[in-house]
């Protein structure tokens, strides 16, 4: 009979991770707020902190600053924050779902669908007679494309047994879409092509309140929904069989996960185009910083990190070569990849 | 009371039946083991019994209820599983992984109450893994991982525990520990344990019932002492290079085919010598050994010619004669240093007759004892202090003998 004496000091905590994650989450929140403030003050017109606080509190009479902050920078910063959070959580959900650490939000072909419809709009005769394509139309086109793929993927997810099959099908949808896009690009006019390519690299520029008013609440609801899945998602870390044996309704969970993550991605892609890397890197950063895969902590941390990193990258895209704006995907990858690599090298475990 | 029962169950994948006509009944606290060769469908049965795979036909009842009508959450409170797939759950500490087993009991967000945490500690100490609680699961050894996974299953507070090959990948120590823990669960907690195993000897020594699976059907079902006969095991695994011995509880590899060695043994002196020689490919004969002797069983399992005598009887004349004949057939004669008593004292006559024929005896006995028992043998004894020395001696002789054979046959060709 093996009986073990457990040290008393140990049995006192309910869990070996204790309460440390709470402080880390608070720290990340502070970091996010600082980044937001930074992105409101910096830019082609630098606005001192004092003026910023007055504008935000509705005091003083800084009419120019007021316009710059309230109408341009604040919606943009909020859009970047929400967009980043959405992509990051979408990536996290899919990484757990596919049990694969190099999955990003676009593996199911959501962005490819959006890109395809946007390409149809921007590169073909649909826009003839309209001169330049209005941003609203582009958003609508991207949304149609993204949601179209979401519906398709959901229909397939209900039918296939293995998630790996779903993954491969998602990749194939991506290839099909980009094949069509490539054909369209071959015959496209130069100027249209340039605009289209810039769109495919993503940008949060030109966000106004109307768009934020859609992005923020819908994104917020989806993020909350993702958090509600944290218990079954934790069980899923042990694989579908174990999860099922513990009472997880696998089919429901599968549908929920795919729906939430693709909807999040579709939402961001519609407004900002495909933004690379955030969805892949933020979950890793969160895991490595917190040292846990527990989704109850990981989902909030991923939201905060995704928001912070994206706001920061958007700021850099805006100011580093001002007045020329860099595509945000370039910044996210340039900045994010080395950080992830260095963090991974320090720790032995992945995912 | 029957906990798990199957009626005319057929299991398999997508219309392809792997095993059919399964009729089993598991009672409370029983320790049941599925045995069978790779690919016989053990895992398929395990997966079906645990509700992960739908049966192709027939039905499974858990405490009288149809398994597939039970709500997943209720099922999880009655039945827990330990699977073979290798887990890489990411950055999870052992405590948290085990705590996941509280899934059916915790609320919407899975927050652990004090009672839940208590159950986790209880399960961890039950499998002797309390010290691992703060470690990352990924950093554990295979044996530790298996114990942690068993603890995870136990915090579900199941009445039935189903395990798919829980001892594969484990070293001997952990294998024994795992089986000891499972046996304790059945005895102390009344949990019904159903598992699949590879090791016949492990099944024989720890399980109450075994189910033999082969060629898409249940070959036999019952207590291992009754149904794990020597031939049945050979049939189960299509073994022809080894023998299973029920009373030894293990497998002996058969080799043979080489030069014949006659071993004078008994009282356990022969068992190790047989194995040693058998490994080197010598064909064995041995005698005269009573049938209640360990040497008898090991010799039989190794496929040796065993000249034997009935239990507790003195060695008869006829047995002696058979042994003398067998010894004349062998290329080498070996004395394993058997003890001499009233029942086997005719073996001394056997030695004398062998010596009379002018044969050399390789002996593991010490020279003094030989002088005492057999007097001065005119240089017919070769003393080997260890089995290693014996083996190298035999190999030298064997080399010379084969050399001689080769040269004589060459001479014939020349002639």
Please specify the SSE layout and strand pairing:
The complex is a heterodimer of chains A (351) and B (415).
Chain A: H1 8-11, H2 20-41, H3 49-57, H4 63-98, H5 110-123, H6 135-159, H7 163-186, H8 190-200, H9 209-228, H10 230-236, H11 240-245, H12 250-272, H13 278-290, H14 295-319, H15 328-346
Chain B: E1 2-13, E2 16-22, E3 25-27, E4 31-35, H1 42-49, E5 57-62, E6 65-66, H2 72-78, E7 79-82, H3 94-99, H4 114-126, H5 142-154, E8 160-163, H6 172-188, E9 192-197, H7 200-206, E10 209-214, E11 217-222, H8 224-227, H9 230-237, E12 242-245, E13 250-253, E14 260-264, H10 271-279, E15 283-290, H11 294-301, E16 305-309, H12 317-329, E17 332-335, H13 346-356, E18 361-363, H14 367-374, E19 381-383, H15 387-414
Parallel strand pairs in B: 4-9, 4-10, 7-8, 8-9, 14-15, 14-17, 15-16, 17-18, 18-19
Antiparallel strand pairs in B: 1-2, 1-3, 1-5, 5-6, 10-11, 12-13
Helix pairs in contact in B: 4-5, 12-13
Molecular structure report:
- The complex is a heterodimer of chains A (351) and B (415).
- Chain A is mainly alpha-helical.
- Chain A has one domain: Orthogonal Bundle (ABC transporter involved in vitamin B12 uptake, BtuC).
- Chain A contains 15 helices and no strands.
- Chain A has helices at 8-11, 20-41, 49-57, 63-98, 110-123, 135-159, 163-186, 190-200, 209-228, 230-236, 240-245, 250-272, 278-290, 295-319, 328-346.
- In chain A, α6 (135-159) packs antiparallel against α12 (250-272).
- The model of chain A is unreliable at 1-18 (pLDDT under 50).
- Mean pLDDT of chain B is 88; it is low at 411-415.
- The chains are: A mainly alpha (351), B alpha/beta (415).
- The interface between A and B is large, with 38 and 54 residues.
